[in-house]
Amino acid sequence: VHQLTVKDIMAKYHRRNPISMVTAYDYITASWAQNANSDMILVGDSVAMCSLGYESTTQLSLDEFQYHVGAVCRAPGPAFVVVDMPFGSFERSISDGIGNAFQLLHLNPKVQAVKVECGLSQDDYSLEYIKELVRRGISVIGHIGLTPQRVHSLGGYKAQGGQQSTDAVALYNVSQTLQQIGCFGIVLECIPHKISSVITDKLHIPTIGIGAGPDTSGQVLVQSDVLGMLPGHKPKFVKMFADFKKDAVSALSQYVQEVHDKSFPHIGHHTFKVNDEVYQDFI
Ligand code: KIV
Ligand code: NA
């Protein structure tokens, strides 16, 4: 199967066709995303919360993440595959961060790009790091706005850039810098739609929005949100396209009930036959 490339993604962007991206965390969710024809699959560090039960993406180790990246990559299909650089995997030093990016790429040849969360100051370390990745020929997507790895310094999970004009300007400026240092795309997370619309307009690389309105070049959602897999708070920007949790619990309850009342398994539908002679000898 031909896997979409950066060139294909840019061609779609230049045709002004919206780009679709969804997260995947393992072989199953990646197979679904591939079968659904998503342009891009993101192995997000949201795997920490959405699959592993952690409270924050900051708790995810690179080794744990690798295990999930490997499983996603074993699902065949044409989607462009992007992986997050998890918290702590790139901040210690440039050489440490470069080494970890190469490790992810070495072990998973299907991975075509990495995504890096960025702060809004022009001297943010992430910008230096991205520059060094790009210099080495690694394709990078920047991520600005609500960057969950920085939840503490941002003061919680909340929309960014809508309260003070300096914040909106900082978002704009860093989007320009990310383009300048060679990112081929930028994720905009939880940014007022009018701000992300202007940011998108002024760039010549695609923006992929989550909680950033309809005017970004593409959209990304977390698969467990799309499918309604998890209980609990649903962020405002999420549209739940299915109710898997409800369907799963109902199906499993029925199974448990049928085990208890012995209506499953059914002799005939779910059983194997034994040759009569074999059976006579056996007893
Ligand atoms: O980890 C993730 O799922 C993400 C998306 C929300 C963009 O970074
Ligand atoms: Na992420």
TrEMBL record:
Membership in a protein family: Belongs to the PanB family.
Family matches, as InterPro entries: Pantoate_hydroxy_MeTrfase, Pyrv/PenolPyrv_kinase-like_dom, Pyrv_kinase-like_dom_sf
Metabolic or biological pathway, per its Swiss-Prot or TrEMBL entry: Cofactor biosynthesis; (R)-pantothenate biosynthesis; (R)-pantoate from 3-methyl-2-oxobutanoate: step 1/2
Top-rank EC class of the record's enzyme: transferase
GO CC terms of this entry: mitochondrion
Catalytic activity: (6R)-5,10-methylene-5,6,7,8-tetrahydrofolate + 3-methyl-2-oxobutanoate + H2O = 2-dehydropantoate + (6S)-5,6,7,8-tetrahydrofolate
Purpose of the protein: Catalyzes the reversible reaction in which hydroxymethyl group from 5,10-methylenetetrahydrofolate is transferred onto alpha-ketoisovalerate to form ketopantoate.
Name recorded for this polypeptide: 3-methyl-2-oxobutanoate hydroxymethyltransferase
SUPFAM superfamilies hit by this protein: Phosphoenolpyruvate/pyruvate domain (SSF51621)
Pfam families to which the protein is assigned, alphabetical: Pantoate_transf
Record-listed E.C. numbers: 2.1.2.11
GO BP, sorted A to Z: pantothenate biosynthetic process
Species classification: Eukaryota, Fungi, Dikarya, Ascomycota, Saccharomycotina
One term of GO molecular function: 3-methyl-2-oxobutanoate hydroxymethyltransferase activity
Keywords: Pantothenate biosynthesis, Transferase
